[in-house]
Design brief:
2 copies of one chain form a homodimer. The first copy, chain A, has 237 residues and is α+β, with helices and mostly antiparallel strands. Chain A has 6 helices and 12 strands. In chain A, the strands form 4 sheets. Chain A has a 5-stranded mixed sheet with strand order 1-12-2-8-9, with helices on both faces.
């Protein structure tokens, strides 16, 4: 029996507006298409979380740069600028373009800010969906970031609940019995990226479900505490 | 019908030694467990590619740092050092710890170097496996890299063949009809990370198959040409 993971795109989630019961809408959409099971990992787009939490601001629809002043006010620090590109450190500690503010998949006259606390957002969705399913599921809130040194963006985890953000393999043997010293795998980032492959950018699929992850990966932790690297551990800020 | 991806772990690939017909061994292992189909993406661990290509050097098994002099000679540049940690730029243009040299999943008296040209390695495997399958498959050679700003490692693509490394969505509409300006998604890195979720680090599963990717993603390109960001486009070197 081959070990396998399945990643399913959940369509049927309506356009989200502030105050929507996002967890309920996600549960209902899954129920209709792909009923959730114990151990499923839901990967939810930051954009719908920001919309549900009213992290939306007005911008001039005719000016593609009208959100730029917000970038500077939302950022904790501006790290680099080149032309219109502003690389920022957000108050959450994320290093990303434009303080995470963006205008894709929102109406032309608004921009979406990052959630205040994406781990908390993930916990709320996890708690509500777990209650509806009657068995534990995990939740990742995902966003799209660029990287230094490599072209193209990938999805990463802004927040998580119910899943270990980092799988700590230090001290476990590799396939040849050698003890591994420094292998801590950021599984929530890999799960976010995997989900992006099926969610896509232009298709408006806000949620994907990853089924088949190792049950030992379920546990406590948060992106803010466990994944964000702080200044003193960072060599490239 | 829910759109889905499946990622399968291919076990049964024997310990690889220099000169092995890696593509043939991969094909045979897949045939036994999970017969390949047109459009499958094989994600192959760098470690088995390096072993098959004899990118193996002797080190002192009793000294966990005996590969460090190699790091300096393999690297094009050393970017940062902190204690035993050496962040390097390799001759391929990759920014990673220890010039990509590592000692996990190899015998205690050797270390594995990166393949000379992982895109070429991927092409060779792709060509041979495609011939055996009788229909096109794609291949990614994956390795595990750390990141600045975020803790934990993730798998990324060192090389690829038969799949577009970057999906260029610039100029296509998002879900609300807005034209996206800067969305180029590095799907080969997301695929490498997704495969890591099932391959794991300690289980010695050298290959995973991703099934169900969009047929439009098949096409030309290489990691070296399309993903590696060059000095003049980089803000953090």
């Amino acid at each position: 029996m081959v070990k396998r993971l399945e990643i399913a795109a959940i369509e049927g989630i309506p356009e989200i507006v502030p105050g929507d019961d996002l967890a309920g809408l996600i549960f209902d959409a899954c129920e209709a298409e792909y009923p959730l099971q114990q151990g499923d990992v839901l990967v939810v787009s930051q954009k719908v979380v920001s919309k549900a939490e009213n992290r939306i601001v007005k911008v001039d629809p005719d000016d593609p740069l009208s959100h730029k002043p917000l970038v500077v006010s939302e950022a904790k620090r501006v790290l680099r600028r080149r032309g219109d590109l502003i690389i920022t450190e957000t108050k959450h500690g994320f290093i990303c373009a434009n303080a995470g503010i963006d205008r894709s998949n929102v109406a032309p006259d608004v921009a979406a800010l990052l959630p205040e606390d994406s781990d908390r957002s993930a916990r709320r969705i996890r708690d509500a969906v777990t209650h509806r399913v009657g068995a534990p599921v995990a939740v990742i809130v995902a966003d799209t970031f660029g990287r230094p040194w490599r072209r193209g963006v990938t999805d990463i985890a802004l927040g998580c609940a119910g899943i270990l953000p980092i799988l700590d393999l230090r001290g476990t043997p590799d396939a040849l019995g050698r003890i591994m010293h420094v292998t801590e795998v950021c599984i929530v980032d890999e799960l976010a990226g995997a989900a992006e492959l099926i969610r896509g950018k232009s298709t408006g699929v806000a949620v994907a479900v990853v089924r088949g992850v190792d049950p030992q990966w379920f546990g406590p932790g948060s992106v803010a505490e466990d994944v964000v690297r702080h200044h003193d551990g960072d060599l490239f800020r």
